[in-house]
Specification:
Elements lengths: L1 E4 L10 E8 L7 E3 L2 E7 L15 E4 L2 E8 L5 E5 L3 E7 L4 H12 L6 E13 L3 E14 L9 E5 L1 H17 L1
Parallel strand pairs: 4-10, 5-10
Antiparallel strand pairs: 1-9, 2-8, 2-11, 3-4, 5-6, 7-8, 9-10
């Protein structure tokens, strides 16, 4: 399994974490793995994000499997792919871990950087210092401290903020 990291702004102390865990065709920072120093990009469509009976993607803190936050199988983690990348939305539980992460993000100690763990099925190398992942298996995404892909992001939002935003939009429409 390989780990890649990613980043976005925090908007409040809500219970939903969302953003982009993977951005397509965005270059990583310089990586030092497999006895090489290289930069990497992820090709659109490289990962199948649909859960199956024997595989579902999980959300962890710092890639630590003893620190789960959400998973596809129970519906608390939702993944979608668009032209930009793989977007996620996670309903964080009311646990000490999730509450600590919310607090750390709100204080700026965690900046919303994301990472992902995967294995490669097919890749393409340009020389020895540039790799494009064309096909792989996505195992997990993680809230992390540092990012190899600084372009990716996550942010917190609350259900009440969403409800209030919908109410405001409805009132504005009625006033027009």
């Amino acid at each position: 399994m390989e780990v890649r990291k990613s980043d976005e702004n925090i908007n409040n102390n809500g219970k939903t974490l969302s953003g982009y865990a993977i951005l397509f065709d965005s270059e990583s920072r310089t990586l030092h793995e497999m006895g090489r120093t290289f930069k990497e990009t992820i090709k659109r469509g490289a990962f199948d994000i649909n859960p199956t009976n024997d595989h579902d993607v999980k959300l962890y803190f710092n890639h630590d499997t003893s620190m789960p936050l959400a998973r596809q199988r129970n519906g608390s983690l939702r993944l979608s792919e668009d032209a930009k990348g793989i977007r996620f939305e996670a309903d964080l539980p009311d646990t000490t871990l999730a509450n600590d992460i919310r607090e750390l993000m709100n204080k700026g100690t965690l900046s919303g950087e994301m990472s992902f763990g995967f294995s490669v099925r097919k890749d393409k190398w340009e020389g020895t210092n540039k790799r494009t992942v064309e096909e792989g298996i996505l195992y997990e995404i993680s809230v992390v401290t540092d990012a190899a892909y600084p372009q990716t992001s996550s942010k917190l939002r609350s259900i009440m903020s969403e409800i209030n935003n919908k109410r405001i939009k409805l009132i504005r429409r009625r006033l027009k």
